[in-house]
Here is the input.
Amino acid sequence: MYSVVPDYSPGFKKPPRTLRLKRKRLRGNQPVPSTRQPPTAAASSPLGNPALFPRPFPGIRRRNPFSSLENTLRSLLPPGPSQCFSPTQRVAENEPSSTGNDPRTGSGEEFLNGLQEDKAIGKEEFYVTSAPASIDDSHQTASHTEVSSPSYEFPADWSIKTRLLFKSPHSFAWADHLKAQEESQGFVQHCRATSINLPQSIQEPKLSTELRCAFQQSLVYWLHPFLPWLQLFPRIGADRKVTGKYSPWSHDEALQQVLMSEWSFSFTSLYNLLRAKLCPYFYVCTYQFTVLFRAAGLAGNDKITALISPTTRGLREAMKNDGIEFILPFQKIKKRKYNSLASNLETGVTGGSETTGKDVETDEEQVLSSGDDDEEGFSWLEEMGVQGKIKKPDVINIKLCKEKNEVQLDHKPESVVLVQGANTFTLLNFLMNCKSLVASAGPQAGTPPTLLSPVAFRGATMQTLKARSINVKTQVHSQYKDIFSLEIVGPIMPHSLHSLSMLLKIAQRGNFSAVCYTHEPTAVFNTDTSNENSITKESKDLSRTGLHPNTLNQLALSSALGKSYIRLLEMNDYIYTWKS
Here is the structure.
């Protein structure tokens, strides 16, 4: 026998054994059998005998204090049928059970009885639910989603897609494992701008050589520069993907000048093809912004247009200094609101309505935020003869308000810039000489912007979108049903989306759906910039670009999507519907 010293616990003589007991107890729900131990140790050390500290319910793991309230309540219930707890059960807040026992130390039945009695008494209550946020999110998503009416054609989407996922009740086996001859024929058809007219329906798509060649033709696009070890699209936000890649020109200025010189030749070649109506459109993708050049006759414009997004105040000021005239499409919308505000204010001041001074000040602030010139900002007050009734802010305040509004536009979709006509040629020279066009530091340092085009140009490399078909079996009720899908990955331009939809319309017998993944910075290119209400004569002159006539007619129409883009495209019985 050994003497017992006060405040001494013999159970800690062998700490590894104590730790093993705790580990075994946490792994299983069954009580851990006691090991051989001196009686005095078990009696004197509460930690040496786990039975002295029973849990609220034997066999139940102790609750996690960081879990939700619903999980906490479930952990307190005993196992068995009574453990089914409704997520919408009402629970009394900060009130003990009516039985007088703490529900955390009593039985599960007493706990539930206490909840029912509290509900019958009518005490202050709250709902326990596990997914209020998801419900709110779904409502917010639905509020921003617009569903179209059925139509035989869908509008042009000028944003660049990064991935398309087609689904259909019919197989996509016809798009797999193209023969060498079919692949070569598809390349030749693309290079020679051959338009293929397929029949309205094909009984056996896998046996149709024309269909498979046309599918290969629709996957082709042209890219500059081409660096196989670097991902050159998308460029905005791609620093993480490019980090760690080998770039020998990042610290070699001579090599950077050679790359930019070749890029300038390719850029000039593309613009000349656009002006000659041999190229419908092309994209310039930098690490900060993207430029979309469109030929005359597309998107309801009778002139060459260029859209730049997103922009900054510094870029817009540099364009002004180079003599480039441009407009902000969303500021034009603001100007329309400003005109309607002026007419409302005129009615309120001269018509004897109850327009207070506070309302006039509020209207004045809205006029200031419209960003108009100093001379035009208050000219309408003089025309109405009320310039003396409203105090004009000084020139400094006006300038500060304008600078604040301009800075607030930076890096936002509302900062999109539209350049038209001959100013696009000035923009070409500006971009080739712009020092901020190429990153000077970081993973993309010294890498020229990416040029994407549907047609060949000087220095371009032919690339193809990656396509693969997947067959999945899913359980529907008590049976298994085949779901066929086709995935397209790469920089998918507007003409490719339309060409693929025309082919699938024939091959899938008018039944398919497509989930579209969009490069967000290019979504604003769907802004309506048209100046013609119908298809112009210039659009008919674009037949030499190699696009299918139906695709050309679609791209010639004015954009109807605004700042949104097509998220889901569906076809049922040869009728389109889409969600944006």
User: Anything to note?
Assistant: The chain is about 35% helix and 15% strand. The CA atoms of residues 181 and 213 lie 9 Å apart. The chain has five domains: 10-51, 54-144, 147-200+465-527+562-579, 239-325+419-461, 330-409. Confidence is low (pLDDT under 50) at residues 39-53, 80-112, 115-143, 349-375.
